[in-house]
Write a structure and sequence with these properties.
320 residues; alpha+beta; Rossmann fold; Hnrnp arginine n-methyltransferase1; 2 domains; 17 strands; binds S-adenosylmethionine
């Protein structure tokens, strides 16, 4: 079925879990992000053809696997690390007529072999997209997925980018930052949720720039390096770097948590500078960005140069 308007909304597919703990609440939050769900559903409806074999990496509640079945998939291998959410997903899917089309596998996807997934996939889906795109380990997951795919297989998402802007943040807003789990000194904040008056509490000192742009089909290396020059448009104290992602689910369907776009469940991410320093209008801020994604962690490094002088290094580490 390629017309996503004809299918019921995601809430109808997977009604609430009555979540009792933070982990299932997290999955309920994902299910409640209608923009996210609709965009994935559209991209899956476009990509999956009748009779296809699909792999859903990090299946969670099973929502994307159900979208793939709706679109005509013959078999969906739904791989999920967490036994608790997998048990809920199995229970929810059991109630559907098409339940036998979804094969649940409780495992770390990185440890699977073609013995565990005996058919090559036409479509590989993974919503392991973090607040800055890469910190949930999507690069290593898609790299590892290559051994399970047919030569012309489609990846959803196909492309993932990361954006960054130097930011001034009023101490009042800094106090509202929410620490990311096991990722200090990185924090989250929903800049696009702030009221107009609060908004006066932060400024992007320069226009945002795309600092990473990865084609997930072609990507091979576990690291990314890029260098950028930000022309300071508004003088002020640099407190850190604010980042977000843009995911191309296909050529036309784009999902982004940019603060300039409607709010999703993903906040923006604030990489805090170890110290604050003043930037004047017209100053140049050089940023060398490095990312290293390994099986268990993703490391982000920003080396900052104020008017060509090495000024600060910001690091952030995410475990996965
Ligand atoms: C952001 S959630 C997405 C869940 C679901 N696909 C959805 O769209 O609602 C990512 C899921 O990937 C799972 N996951 C992360 N790394 C994994 C791995 N290496 N192998 C299997 N599952 C993994 C997590 O446990 C989590 O349930």
């Amino acid at each position: 079925m390629n017309n996503s308007n004809k299918i019921p909304n995601s809430g109808a597919l997977i009604p609430g879990f009555n979540a009792a703990d933070d982990y299932t609440k997290y999955h309920e939050r994902l299910l409640g992000d209608q923009i996210r769900n609709d965009k994935f559903r559209q991209a899956i409806a476009q990509a999956v053809k009748s009779g296809d074999i699909v792999i859903d990496i990090g299946a969670g509640s099973g929502i994307l696997s159900l979208f793939a079945v709706e679109a005509g998939a013959d078999i969906v291998y739904a791989v999920e690390l967490d036994p608790k959410i997998l048990a809920i997903a199995k229970q929810k899917v059991k109630e559907k007529e098409t339940a036998d089309k979804i094969k649940f596998i409780q495992a770390n996807f990185l440890e699977l072999s073609p013995y565990d997934i005996p058919q090559k996939a036409d479509v590989i889906i993974s919503e392991t997209i973090g607040t800055v795109g890469f910190e949930e380990g999507i690069l290593t997951l898609f790299q590892s997925a290559k051994k399970f795919m047919k030569p012309q297989a489609v990846f959803i998402p196909a492309e993932l980018s990361m954006f960054a802007a130097p930011i001034y943040m009023h101490p009042r807003l800094e106090r509202e930052l929410v620490s990311c789990k096991a990722a200090l000194p990185v924090s989250n904040i929903q800049l696009n949720q702030l009221s107009k008056t609060q908004k006066e509490g932060f400024d992007f000192l320069a226009a945002p720039k795309k600092i990473a742009d990865i084609d997930l089909y072609k990507y091979k290396s576990p690291s990314i390096k890029s260098t950028h020059e930000f022309k300071i448009a508004i003088g002020g104290e640099l407190c850190g770097i604010c980042c977000w992602f843009e995911a191309h689910l296909d050529e036309h369907i784009i999902l982004t948590n940019s603060p300039a776009h409607p709010m999703l469940h993903w906040p923006q991410t604030f990489f805090k500078s170890p110290f604050k320093f003043k930037l004047e209008k017209e100053d140049s801020l050089g940023v060398t960005f490095k990312l290293l994604s390994e099986e268990k962690y993703t490391l982000f490094i920003f080396d900052l140069m104020r008017n060509s002088i090495k000024t600060a290094r910001i690091t952030g580490m995410f475990m996965h």
